[in-house]
Design goal:
Number of strands: 5
Low-confidence stretches: 1-9
Number of helices: 9
Strand content: 5-15%
Helix content: 40-55%
Mean pLDDT: 79
Radius of gyration: 28 Å
Structural class: alpha+beta
Shape: flat
Order of helices and strands: HHHHEHEEHEEHHH
Length: 281
């Protein structure tokens, strides 16, 4: 007689193996059922999570990276709706695993942000640093005239943050964020004001034309009003495009910083002129 485990109705029997999607569903459902049980622990240590992962065949390296990503996760606002579609995201975010130790990588990032991005430290909390744009005269001059040969894409951000968490003894996960929410709110208000003024003025021109007894006045008024409204709409659209480009440049700047960290290209020095400008407050 064949053993019980070989029967088609028993797990581990002759049923077809599961594909990756099915396996993910099974694991998610098992975790949900476990969480509902009375003896399910509220908290697990890293060692317990790694032990659980090894029991189901998940690589410890992947688990450590997932743990680091969870610890650097930040809840961002929902970007759906008209504002999100027209003006883009309010945050630029980038993350990557790079070689190094948390303290060393944070120090490299701090040096780069202050020397090369015209930022200054805002807060330092454990494994997280935040910066804001320099508001002194020389910093504003450098940003305005692109002194140094490149744009300073992070200075429009209200805050730039970095969180560094160890993955293992030789690698860390770096998460960078740039908050462009204030800039977006200003541009939304500006574009809305321009569009509203254009529409109101256009309607006003048409209304005034109806009071004229001149032949064709209404047609002329309608054309002028439409053109005026259309110009206001174009201006508002240009403001929205400008905001989207600003966030895209910030996103690129964050990715480039991670590229330099990954390849060990964070410079520790620069030209005497740039050193002088950075030292002037």
């Amino acid at each position: 007689m064949a053993p019980e485990s070989d029967s088609p109705g028993q797990p581990g029997g002759s049923l077809a193996p599961l594909d990756r999607a099915a396996l993910e569903r099974v694991m998610a459902r098992a975790a949900e059922l476990q969480a509902r049980s009375a003896d399910a622990p509220e908290h697990l240590t890293d060692a317990q999570i790694l032990a659980l992962g090894s029991e189901v065949g998940i690589s410890s390296d992947h688990l450590r990276q997932a743990l680091a990503e969870e610890r650097t996760r930040v809840a961002l606002p929902d970007e759906t709706g008209v504002v999100g579609s027209w003006f883009g995201a309010s945050h630029a975010v980038a993350s990557r695993v790079v070689p190094g130790k948390p303290a060393d990588v944070l120090a490299q990032l701090d040096g780069w942000m202050q020397r090369e991005e015209l930022l200054r430290v805002r807060r330092r909390i454990g494994d997280r640093l935040t910066w804001e744009a320099r508001r002194d005269f020389m910093g504003s001059m450098q940003a305005s005239f692109n002194i140094g040969g490149r744009p300073y894409a992070l200075t429009p951000a209200a805050e730039v943050g970095a969180t560094v968490v160890a993955v293992d003894a030789a690698r860390v996960l770096v998460r960078l964020e740039a908050d462009f929410g204030n800039s977006r709110r200003r541009n939304v208000a500006w574009a809305g004001g321009v569009a509203g003024l254009g529409a109101t003025s256009g309607v006003g021109v048409v209304a005034l034309s109806t009071l004229s007894a001149e032949p064709g006045a209404l047609v002329i008024g309608a054309v002028v009003g439409s053109v005026w409204t259309g110009v206001a709409g174009l201006v508002a659209s240009a403001v929205a495009r400008s905001q989207r480009r600003k966030v895209a440049r910030g996103q690129l700047a964050l990715e480039q910083i991670l590229d330099r960290l990954e390849h060990g290209e964070i410079r520790s020095s620069k030209s005497p002129l740039m050193e002088f400008l950075s030292s002037v407050r």
